[in-house]
Amino acid sequence: MATRRCSKPTGIERGFRFLKAPLFMASTLFLKMPRRIMALMAIMILCLMVHAALEHRIRQSLAQQSQTFPNQKGKPTERPTARWVFQSFMDIHVLLVAPFTEVVPNLKAHHRVLLALLGERYVAVYANSG
After folding, report:
1. Could you give the CA distance from residue 94 to residue 48 in angstroms, rounded to a whole number?
2. Which residues lie below 8 Å from residue 58, measured CB to CB, with a gap of 6+?
3. How far apart, in whole angstroms, are the C-alpha atoms of residue 43 and residue 45?
4. What is the pLDDT of residues 45-99, one digit of tens each?
5. pLDDT at 38 > cutoff 80
6. Per-residue H/E/C for the chain
7. How much is the pTM?
8. What angle do helix axes 34-64 and 109-118 make, rounded to 10 degrees?
9. Where in the chain are the domains?
């Protein structure tokens, strides 16, 4: 019986690719004790779960509202990766002006749309955009 190989990676394979990525920095750690290795694995799996849940929520919200988010090439997509969404928010910072004023520069329209789709808690973080 011949087995059929799938050309696209499954969710599990993508997850392990995420864990092995240089940005996750798992290869920089050296642990000897089995309990510490198990603790690290538990944390890594928890991170992967949060990552997958956020990606699912982003994609679900975009699809429900018939909205898109620009991909790496600037083309609209309903299925952006969480990694790309995180990277697109990397240039957005909170700027403290005077003693008690916060300004969030570089927030573009597609960021605002995504934050609004995700809910008020997300919008509140970037409320003082300018």
Report:
1. 27
2. 69, 80, 82, 85, 114, 117, 118
3. 5
4. 888 888 889 999 999 999 999 999 998 898 999 999 888 898 888 888 878 787 7
5. yes
6. CCCCCCCCCCHHHHHHHHHHCHHHCHHHCCCCCHHHHHHHHHHHHHHHHHHHHHHHHHHHHHHHCCCCEECCCCCEECCCCHHHHHHHCCCCCCEEECCCEEEECCCCHHHHHHHHHHCHHHHHHCCCEC
7. 0.68
8. 100
9. 11-125
Q: Is 97 in contact with 103 (CB distance < 8 Å)?
A: yes
Residues across the chain = 130
Q: Record the tokens describing residue 5, joined without a space.
A: 């190989």
Contact status, residue 110 vs residue 102, Cβ threshold 8 Å: no
Residue 104 contacts residue 94 (beta carbons within 8 Å): yes
* Token pair in block for residue 15: 């997850």
CB 50 within 8 A of CB 44: no
